[in-house]
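Incident log, support desk, overnight shift.

02:14 A customer reports that sequence design results differ from what the structure should imply. Their input is reproduced verbatim below. On-call engineer (initials T.W.) acknowledged and began investigating.
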C-alpha cells in the first residue's frame, strides 16, 4: 500500500531522517496560512499516489504566501496526468513545505530484491531524475548494497558504498547514518519500498529528504493500524476500495465478464477459460473458503458495481464452501439487486446437487464444467 508523501515523511521523521517542515491540507483557504507560517518560501506539492508529479505540474516553488495560495487553489481538485499515470488522478490534498535549498540531488532507496531474496539499498549521486533512466543510461552510477537478513548493513559496507557512489565527502557520514535509519524504518514498519528522490544536499552541507515514497506491505497492516485508514482511499479504483472495506479479494481487470469463484487458483483458471473462449474478464474475485450466502450476495453485488459487466460467470468447487450456500447467496442477490445480465453457474463438489436444484426454474444457466461455463457466458454476452 502506497503512502502519500506527507505520510512517508512522517514515517521517516519517526526514525530521525531529516525532512523539511510542512503541513498538509485539502482546504485552499488554509494553504495561505500554512505558507505564511513557513515564512513564504515554500513548495506546494500535490499529494497524489503517482510518480512524476514534478513534470505533471504538481510541484511548484514560491517566494511568497500569496502566490503559493493561488497555486494551491488551482491545484486542489485538478486532475494530474503523468507518463506513469495517463488516466490521471484528482488532487485532493496538497503539502505545503519549506523550500529546501538544493545544491545536489541524490537517490537512495531500500527495497526487496526478488532475485537475491534479500533487501537491497540502492544509492546514486544522480538523483532528481527517474532512476529507470539512470539505470539505462549510466548503470555504473547506481551502487547496490545487499542487506544481510541476519546482520543487516555494516558500517564499513556503507562507507565503501557512499565513496563508490561519489557522494561528496561532506555528505558521506550523513548518508551512512541516513541509510541505517532507512533500513531500520523499512524493517520495523514492514515496508516494501522506501525511496527518497531527491535526497537533497543543501549549500551549507546538510542532507535532507526533499521527497519520499514509502510503500507498506499490505499483509502486515494488522501490525500497523495507523495506516489502515488510508488503505481504502489509497486504492486507485472505487470498487477495489469498497472490496477492501468488505475484506473481499477483488481486482478490476477491465473486461466485460464478471467472475466469481472460490479459491484463487480456480478463479485464475476461470480467467484463462474466459480468455480461451474469446471473452475478457472484468475482474478477479475470490469469495473465499466456507463462504456463507450473505457473503456470496455481497460478492455478486460488488461484481455488478462495474458498469462494464455484461455477464457473470460463477465457478464454485465445493469443499468447505457448500454449493447450496452459494446458490442461496445468488438467489438472494437476485431478489434484492437488480440483476439484468446473464448469469452462468458451474457448481461442483460438496452440496453441488442441492445448489443446482435451488437454481432450477431461474434464469441462471447451469454449466457442468468450467470450460462450458466460460463458453456459455461468452456466447450469451455477444
Ligand atoms: P516527483 O516528481 O513526484 O518525484 O516529486 P518531487 O517531490 O521529487 O519534486 C519534483 C522536483 O521538484 C524535484 O526533483 C526537485 O527538483 C524539485 N523540488 C521538490 N521539492 C523541492 C524543494 O524543496 N526545493 C527545490 N529547490 N526543489 C524542489
Ligand atoms: Mn521525487
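02:41 Re-run completed on a clean worker. Output:
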Amino acid at each position: 500500500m502506497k503512502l502519500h508523501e506527507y505520510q512517508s515523511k512522517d514515517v521517516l521523521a519517526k526514525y530521525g531522517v531529516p525532512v523539511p517542515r510542512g503541513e498538509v491540507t485539502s482546504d485552499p483557504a488554509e494553504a495561505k496560512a500554512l505558507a505564511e507560517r513557513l515564512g513564504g518560501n515554500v513548495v506546494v506539492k500535490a499529494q497524489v499516489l503517482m510518480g512524476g508529479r514534478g513534470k505533471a505540474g504538481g510541484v511548484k516553488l514560491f517566494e511568497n504566501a500569496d502566490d503559493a495560495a493561488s497555486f494551491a487553489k488551482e491545484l486542489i481538485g485538478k486532475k494530474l496526468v503523468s507518463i506513469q499515470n495517463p488516466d490521471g488522478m484528482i488532487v485532493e490534498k496538497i503539502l505545503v513545505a519549506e523550500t529546501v535549498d538544493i545544491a545536489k540531488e541524490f537517490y537512495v532507496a531500500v527495497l526487496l530484491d526478488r532475485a537475491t531474496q534479500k533487501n537491497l539499498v540502492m544509492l546514486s549521486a544522480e538523483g532528481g531524475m527517474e532512476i529507470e533512466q539512470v539505470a539505462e543510461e549510466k548503470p555504473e552510477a547506481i551502487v547496490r548494497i545487499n542487506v544481510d537478513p541476519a546482520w543487516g548493513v555494516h558500517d564499513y559496507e556503507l562507507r565503501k558504498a557512499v565513496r563508490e557512489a561519489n557522494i561528496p565527502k561532506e555528505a558521506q557520514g550523513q548518508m551512512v547514518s541516513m541509510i541505517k535509519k532507512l533500513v531500520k524504518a523499512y524493517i520495523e514498519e514492514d515496508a516494501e519500498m522506501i525511496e527518497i528522490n531527491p535526497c537533497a544536499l543543501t549549500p551549507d552541507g546538510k542532507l535532507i529528504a526533499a521527497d519520499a515514497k514509502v510503500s507498506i506491505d499490505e499483509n502486515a497492516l494488522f501490525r500497523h493500524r495507523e495506516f489502515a485508514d488510508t488503505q481504502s482511499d489509497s486504492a486507485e479504483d472505487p470498487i477495489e476500495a469498497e472490496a477492501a472495506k468488505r475484506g473481499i479479494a477483488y481486482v478490476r481487470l477491465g473486461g466485460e465478464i464478471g467472475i466469481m469463484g472460490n479459491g484463487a487458483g480456480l478463479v485464475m483458471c476461470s480467467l484463462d477459460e474466459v480468455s480461451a473462449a474469446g471473452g475478457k474478464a472484468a475482474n478477479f474475485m475470490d469469495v473465499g473458503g466456507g463462504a456463507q450466502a450473505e457473503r456470496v450476495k455481497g460478492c455478486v453485488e460488488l461484481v455488478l458495481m462495474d458498469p462494464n459487466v455484461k455477464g457473470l460467470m460463477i465457478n464454485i468447487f465445493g469443499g468447505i464452501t457448500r454449493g447450496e450456500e452459494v446458490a442461496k447467496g445468488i438467489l438472494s442477490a437476485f431478489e434484492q439487486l437488480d440483476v439484468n445480465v446473464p448469469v452462468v453457474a458451474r457448481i461442483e463438489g460438496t452440496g453441488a446437487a442441492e445448489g443446482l436444484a435451488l437454481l432450477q426454474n431461474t434464469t441462471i444457466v447451469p454449466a457442468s464444467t468450467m470450460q462450458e461455463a466460460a463458453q456459455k457466458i461468452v456466447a450469451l454476452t455477444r
